[in-house]
Write a structure and sequence with these properties.
The protein is of the alpha/beta class. 25% of the residues lie in helices and 33% in strands. It has 8 helices and 12 strands. α4 crosses α5.
């Protein structure tokens, strides 16, 4: 008998993967969590029926959350990740020698626990001495830490369950206040095929708070539609003004210095959502 996992990405569309083994299925205090082994994408973390990461394609998302912002800021020392309990963004942050401290705040400790056990190549940076892991509400952490961070990265699920507040204008205002005077924030902002309204609303809210706002894209095959957007809000530095010839090469599989600016070149239909 074959077992398949299907994520319904809309009421009429989904993606499916053949399952080799189920490691964990648990209702945590915040969400339904599953860790499964798939034949095509390896180990897969699923929260509330949505694919969060897989061993095969995780590098795209994690590199593109971390590196565009960290190579735009000239000297990022203190970095916050809201969400991201699998540890992938933290792993990428640690590739930047200027970073003195990286703080991870995830509301669900079970995500962190099971990622360490079943996703060791992704969660490998969580024990690094430069990293502080906090199991708490990221929304409240932001509001309790003013003028504290050079870069803030929001590695959230889609806007359902505990992540709803992480897509609100009040949260973006809190991020602005939690950043230092030249700070940068980055958030995953879903896909333009099925969540165009979300991209428009986030872009509108962030533009009312930050003087520089840029949207960029990456290809992530296990995420809805495969085309994924990220929104950057910056107080001072424009990613399009970065001299790509001065971006050092780092260990990566997706991000490159030449891709830094190229990722901000949007398809016309995505560009239209950001006007």
């Amino acid at each position: 008998m074959e077992l398949w996992y299907t994520e319904k990405q809309t009421e009429a569309y989904g993606i499916t993967a053949k399952i080799k083994e189920t490691y964990v299925r648990e209702q945590t205090d915040f969400q339904d969590l599953a860790m499964i082994e798939t034949e095509e994408f390896g180990t897969m973390l699923i929260l509330d029926g949505m694919v969060m990461t897989t061993v095969r394609d995780e590098f795209v998302y994690h590199e593109m959350v971390a590196h565009p912002a960290l190579f735009t800021h000239p000297n990022p020392k203190h970095v916050l990740v809201v969400g991201g309990g699998d540890g992938g963004v933290i792993r990428e942050i640690l590739k930047h020698p200027s970073v003195e401290k990286a703080v991870l705040v995830d509301i669900d400790g079970k995500v962190i626990e099971y990622s360490k056990k079943y996703l060791p190549t992704i969660a490998c940076g969580l024990e690094d001495p430069r990293v502080e892991v906090i199991v708490n509400d990221g929304y409240m952490h932001i509001h309790d830490h003013k003028n504290a961070y050079d870069v803030i990265m929001v590695d959230s699920t889609e806007p359902v369950g505990p992540a709803v507040e992480l897509f609100s204008k009040g949260f973006y205002q809190g991020i602005y206040e939690s950043l230092k005077e030249d700070g940068i924030f980055i958030a995953q902002t879903d896909n333009p095929w099925f969540k165009a309204d979300l991209i428009q609303s986030v872009n509108r809210d962030v533009r009312e708070i930050f003087p520089i706002v840029r949207v960029y894209c990456a290809n992530i095959p296990t995420y809805p539609s495969g085309l994924w957007t990220f929104t950057m809000g910056s107080k001072k530095y424009d990613p399009l003004e970065v001299d790509e010839t001065k971006i050092p090469e780092i260990e990566s599989k997706y991000y490159t210095p030449r891709l830094h600016k190229a990722a901000f070149v949007l398809p016309r239909f995505v560009e239209d959502l950001c006007k």
